[in-house]
Amino acid sequence: MRDRLRIAVQKSGRLAEPARALLASCGYAWRETRDHLFCIGETMPIDLLLVRDDDIPGLLADGTCDLGIVGRNVLLERAGECVLAGAPAPFREWRGLGFGACKLALAVPQQWGEAQALALDGLRIATSYPALLTQWLDERGIAAEVVTLSGSVEIAPRLGKADAICDLVSSGATLAANQLRATDVLLESEAVLAGPVAPFGDARAEIAALLLRRFDAVLGLRD
Ligand code: PRT
Ligand code: ZN
Predict the structure, then answer these.
(1) Which of 41, 65, 77, 156 could lock 8 by a disulfide, CB 3.0 to 4.6 Å apart?
(2) 125 and 151 part of one domain
(3) Which ligand 1 atom sits nearest the alpha carbon of residue 169?
(4) Cα of 14 to ligand 2 centre, how many Å?
C-alpha cells in the first residue's frame, strides 16, 4: 500500500521543461533533493523521479514509478517490444499532453522517384524504433530489413549502412540536411502521461484522479 504517487519525468531534454511547467500549472510545487534525481512534492502527495526518457517504460513496468511523462513514440516502442515477445504491455497511455509533438516517419533519399520510394521490399531501413517499424512492415507484408541504430539514424544512407530510414521528425530540417524526404508517417507522437493498465488499488487512485482533473483543466484551457 502506498499513499504517495511517484512520477517519472525526463531529467533533461526536450520534454523536461514543458513537463515541469505542466505540473507547476496544476498547482504542484516540489523541492529537489541534493542528488537532483528525486523531487519531493510539497503541495500534493506526489514525488518526481528525474530519469532518461528511455527508462520510463521500464520504471512503470517494474512498479518503481506509478506514472510517467514520456513521448508516445518511446512508450509504444516498448509496448511493441512486449507484443513481439508475446506479452501484453504492462502500461498504457492515460492522456496526450499537447507538447513534444513529432512524427515517426519513413524517409528515403530525395533523388528517389515515387515508384522507388514505394518499393521497400528487400531494402535496409535504419531506425531506433525497430518494434514499431517491424509492426508497420508486417501489417503491409513488406519484406524489408530493419537495421537498428541507437543514434545518428539520418546519416545511415550516406554511410551506406541503410537505403532508407525511419526516425522522428519535427521541423524536417534534419531530413533536408541529409538529403532525405519523408514518405509515410508511422506514428503521430507527443508527450503523454503513461500509467498502469489497471487502476491503483490504494490511496494512489485518489491522488492520480486529482492530478488528472487538474491536467484536464489546464489542457482544456490551452486548446
Ligand atoms: O537523455 P534522454 O535519453 O532522456 O533524451 P533523448 O535525447 O533520448 O530524447 P530527446 O530529449 O531528444 O527527446 C525526447 C522526446 O521528444 C522524444 O522521444 C520525442 O517524443 C520528442 N521529440 C519531439 C523529438 C523531436 N520532437 C525531434 N525533433 N525527439 C527527437 N527529435 C529529433 C529528430 O529525430 C531529429 O534528429 O530532433 C532532430 C531535429 O528534428 P527536425 O525534424 O526538427 O530537424
Ligand atoms: Zn532517450
Answers:
(1) 65
(2) yes
(3) 42
(4) 10
| Residue matched to cell numbers 539514424 | 153
192-222 tens-digit pLDDT:
999 999 999 999 999 999 999 999 999 997 7
Q: Whose CA is nearest to atom 36 of ligand 1?
A: 174
Q: How far apart are CA 46 and CA 167, in angstroms?
A: 34
Query: Which residues contact residue 52 at a Cβ distance below 8 angstroms, ignoring those fewer than 6 apart?
Result: 10, 11
* The three grid cell numbers given for residue 183, joined into one nine-digit string: 514518405
**Does 79 lie in the same domain as 14?**
yes
* C-alpha 5 – ligand 2 centre gap (Å): 23
- Helix, strand, coil percent values for the chain (each to nearest 5): 35, 30, 35
Query: Could you tell me the distance, in angstroms and rounded to a whole number, from the CA of residue 14 to the centre of ligand 1?
Result: 6
Are 146 and 171 contained in the same domain? Answer: yes
Which has the closest alpha carbon to 148: 169, 128, 131?
128
- Total structural domains within the chain: 2
Nearest CA to ligand 1 atom 32: 168
pLDDT tens, residue by residue, 84-132: 999 999 999 999 999 999 999 999 999 998 887 789 999 999 999 999 9
| Residue 207's CATH number | 3.40.190.10
Ligand 1 neighbours, Cβ below 6 Å, are: 10, 13-15, 52-54, 71, 73-74, 100, 102, 167-174, 189
Same domain, 107 and 158: yes
